[in-house]
C-alpha cells in the first residue's frame, strides 16, 4: 500500500479508536470546560502541545479535547515515558511510531539524539500534525518534592500545583521541526538542508488541566465510572513558533515562565472553581497582577500589619444600624473584652496576630517565656530532622529568634509593635510559624490525617495550605500551633448564627495566653479579659 494512503487510513482508524474513549468518559458523566485561546484556529497546523501532568487521566482527557477538532486527533505523535511501551496503549503507539523516552541524566543526551532521528524519520512520513509532550517528565505527586528542592537550591520559583519543566525534548522538537534554524547546532547549514524536507512546526500550544479541588482523576476511574461525574477544566494559550526563543537559556526561562503562569492559573482555579477570564490583549495575567498590586497597595497604605489598640466599641461603626445580629454579638463580646487590635487582612492574619499577642503576653510571664524560648530554639533541628532543608529554614529561624529575644530584653509593647510592622521582620516571623505548624502536622501525621479533606496526605496539605504565605488558617492550623508551643489559644467566633459569639479554646482545657476574634475569613486580637 502507498504510505500516504496507509497513514491517511491509519489516522481515521485512530480517531475512531479515540471515539470509544470519548464515549466511555461522556457516558460516565465527565465533561470538559475549555477556556483561553480558541485552538480550533490552529487545529490543522503543525503544533506541539505542552501539558501539565497530574495523573493517568491526562491522556484520555487530551483525547477528549482534541477529538472534535478536525483530524488533528488522528494525526498526533505522543512522546511518553518508555514504561508505557509495555501497556496496551504502548503496543498501539509502537505501531503508530510514537516515541518512548527514557528519564535520567545518564541517558539524557542519547535520548535527544534518538528523538531527533525519530522526528526526521517519522513525523512527516507518518503525516503527523500535533506532538503531545508532558515537559515535567512525570506525575505531579511524584515530582513535586524534588522539584521544590531543586527550585530552592537554584533560586527558581517554588511551585505547588505544577513542577519545574525540562526543556530537552522541547528543544529537540523545535530544533528539528522549527523554522529551520538549528538551536546552537554546530552544523547549522547541514541541519537547514535536512529540515527543508520536513513539515515545519507553526505553533506551541500550552494546555493547563485543572481537576476539581486539585484531586486528579485516574484513567481507570474515568473509564469504569466509579469516580463521581464532574467537569474537568482546561486552559489554552497558543504561541507562534516564531515567538519562541532559540537560545537554550532563553528557552528555559520562557518555559519556566509558562509554568509560573500555570501555577497562577491553577491557584485561581482551586480557589474559585474556574480559570480566570482572558483579556483580549492577551495580557490578562499582567492585568490580574496589576489589579492585585493596586489592592495590596491600597491595603498597605491604609492599614498597618498590626494596628494600634482600639476600643472594642469602634467595631460598631463597621456594621449598619439595622444589622442587629452583629450588634448583639458585639454587645456580648463587650461583656468580656474592652479593646481590639486589628491585623491586616493579607491571609496571614492568624499567624501574625498569634505571634504578636503571644509575645506581648510573655512580657509579663517569665516562666512561660523560658519554656517557649527553649521550644523555639530547638524547633529548627526538629524541622531538619523531619526533612526540611537546613539552608532554607536557617535564615527564617534566626530572624524568628531575634524577635523572640526582644521579650527577654524586656522591650516595650511599642518596640514589639514596630518590629511586627516591619514587613521584612514580620513576614520572616510568619514564615517560620508556618514551618513550625507544617512540621508539627507531619510529626503528628496519624492524628491530623483524619481532619484533612479532599483525599490529600498531610504533606500535600502542608505544601498547599500551610507553608505558602497568604493562605488562610482554619482549626487545624490553630490546634497545631498551640500544641507545638505548648500554649493555649482562645478564639471568639462571630458569625450570623445565634445571639452570642461561640468561644473555643485550643487545645481543650488549656489556659489561653492568646485571645483572638474571628470574623469570616479574618482574625484580630482581643484584650483585657473582664
From TrEMBL:
Q: Does the keyword Transport apply?
A: no
Q: Which InterPro entries match?
A: Acyltransf_C, OTU_dom, Papain-like_cys_pep_sf, Peptidase_C65_otubain, Peptidase_C65_otubain_sub1, Peptidase_C65_otubain_sub2, Plipid/glycerol_acylTrfase
State the superkingdom: Eukaryota
Q: Does the keyword Transmembrane apply?
A: no
Q: What is this protein called?
A: ubiquitinyl hydrolase 1
Q: Give every OTU domain span.
A: 338-529
Under the cellular component aspect of Gene Ontology, which terms does the record hold? nucleus
Q: Which SUPFAM superfamilies match?
A: Cysteine proteinases, Glycerol-3-phosphate (1)-acyltransferase
Q: Which Pfam families does the UniProt entry name for this protein? A: Acyltransf_C (PF16076), Acyltransferase (PF01553), Peptidase_C65 (PF10275)
UniProt keyword list: Hydrolase, Protease, Thiol protease, Ubl conjugation pathway
Q: Which family does it belong to?
A: Belongs to the peptidase C65 family.
Q: Which GO terms describe its biological process?
A: protein K48-linked deubiquitination; proteolysis
Please state the Enzyme Commission number of this protein.
3.4.19.12
Lineage of source species: Eukaryota, Metazoa, Spiralia, Lophotrochozoa, Mollusca
Q: Which reaction does it catalyse?
A: Thiol-dependent hydrolysis of ester, thioester, amide, peptide and isopeptide bonds formed by the C-terminal Gly of ubiquitin (a 76-residue protein attached to proteins as an intracellular targeting signal)
The UniProt GO MF terms for this protein read: acyltransferase activity; cysteine-type deubiquitinase activity; ubiquitin binding
Species, as recorded? Pomacea canaliculata
Amino acid at each position: 500500500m502507498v504510505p500516504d494512503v496507509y497513514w491517511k487510513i491509519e489516522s481515521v482508524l485512530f480517531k475512531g479508536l479515540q471515539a470509544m474513549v470519548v464515549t466511555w468518559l461522556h457516558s460516565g458523566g465527565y465533561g470538559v470546560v475549555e477556556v483561553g485561546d480558541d485552538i480550533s484556529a490552529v487545529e490543522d497546523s503543525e503544533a506541539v502541545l505542552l501539558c501539565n501532568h497530574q495523573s493517568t487521566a491526562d491522556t484520555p482527557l487530551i483525547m477528549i479535547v482534541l477529538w472534535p477538532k478536525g483530524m488533528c486527533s488522528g494525526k498526533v505523535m505522543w512522546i511518553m515515558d518508555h514504561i508505557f511501551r509495555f501497556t496496551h496503549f504502548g503496543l498501539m503507539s509502537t505501531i503508530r511510531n510514537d516515541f518512548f523516552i527514557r528519564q535520567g541524566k545518564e541517558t539524557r543526551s542519547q535520548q535527544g539524539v534518538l528523538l531527533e532521528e525519530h522526528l526526521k524519520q517519522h513525523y512527516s512520513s507518518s503525516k503527523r500534525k500535533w506532538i503531545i509532550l508532558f515537559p515535567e517528565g512525570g506525575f505531579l505527586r511524584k515530582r513535586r518534592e524534588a522539584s521544590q528542592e531543586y527550585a530552592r537550591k537554584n533560586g527558581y520559583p517554588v511551585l505547588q500545583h505544577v513542577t519545574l519543566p525540562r526543556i530537552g525534548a522541547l528543544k529537540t522538537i523545535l530544533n528539528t521541526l522549527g523554522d529551520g534554524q538549528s538551536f546552537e547546532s554546530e552544523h547549522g547549514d547541514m541541519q537547514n538542508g535536512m529540515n527543508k524536507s520536513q513539515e515545519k512546526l507553526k505553533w506551541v500550544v500550552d494546555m493547563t488541566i485543572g481537576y476539581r479541588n486539585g484531586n486528579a482523576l485516574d484513567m481507570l476511574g474515568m473509564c469504569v465510572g466509579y469516580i463521581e461525574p464532574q467537569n474537568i477544566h482546561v486552559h489554552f494559550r497558543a504561541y507562534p513558533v516564531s515567538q519562541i526563543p532559540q537560545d537554550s537559556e532563553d528557552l528555559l526561562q520562557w518555559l519556566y515562565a509558562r509554568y509560573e503562569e500555570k501555577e497562577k492559573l491553577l491557584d485561581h482555579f482551586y480557589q474559585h472553581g474556574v480559570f480566570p477570564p482572558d483579556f483580549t490583549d492577551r495580557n490578562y495575567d499582567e492585568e490580574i497582577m496589576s489589579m492585585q498590586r493596586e489592592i495590596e497597595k491600597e491595603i498597605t497604605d491604609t492599614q498597618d500589619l498590626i494596628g494600634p489598640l482600639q476600643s472594642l466599641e469602634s467595631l460598631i461603626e463597621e456594621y449598619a444600624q439595622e444589622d442587629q445580629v452583629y450588634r448583639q454579638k458585639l454587645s456580648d463580646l463587650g461583656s468580656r473584652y474592652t479593646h481590639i487590635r486589628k491585623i491586616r487582612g493579607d491571609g496571614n492574619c492568624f499567624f501574625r496576630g498569634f505571634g504578636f499577642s503571644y509575645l506581648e503576653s510573655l512580657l509579663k510571664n517569665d516562666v512561660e517565656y523560658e519554656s517557649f524560648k527553649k521550644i523555639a530554639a530547638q524547633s529548627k533541628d526538629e524541622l531538619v530532622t523531619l526533612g526540611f532543608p537546613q539552608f532554607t529554614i536557617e535564615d527564617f529561624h534566626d530572624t524568628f529568634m531575634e524577635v523572640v529575644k526582644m521579650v527577654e530584653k524586656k522591650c516595650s509593647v511599642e518596640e514589639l509593635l514596630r518590629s511586627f510592622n516591619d514587613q521584612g521582620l514580620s513576614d520572616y516571623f510568619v514564615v517560620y510559624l508556618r514551618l513550625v505548624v507544617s512540621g508539627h502536622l507531619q510529626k503528628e501525621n496519624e492524628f491530623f490525617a483524619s481532619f484533612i479533606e479532599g483525599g490529600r496526605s498531610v504533606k500535600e496539605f502542608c505544601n498547599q495550605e500551610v507553608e505558602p504565605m497568604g493562605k488562610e488558617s482554619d482549626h487545624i492550623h490553630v490546634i497545631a500551633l498551640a500544641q507545638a508551643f505548648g500554649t493555649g489559644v482562645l478564639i471568639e467566633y462571630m458569625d450570623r448564627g445565634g445571639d452570642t459569639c461561640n468561644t473555643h479554646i485550643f487545645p481543650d482545657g488549656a489556659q489561653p495566653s492568646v485571645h483572638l476574634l474571628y470574623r469570616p475569613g479574618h482574625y484580630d486580637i482581643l484584650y483585657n479579659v473582664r
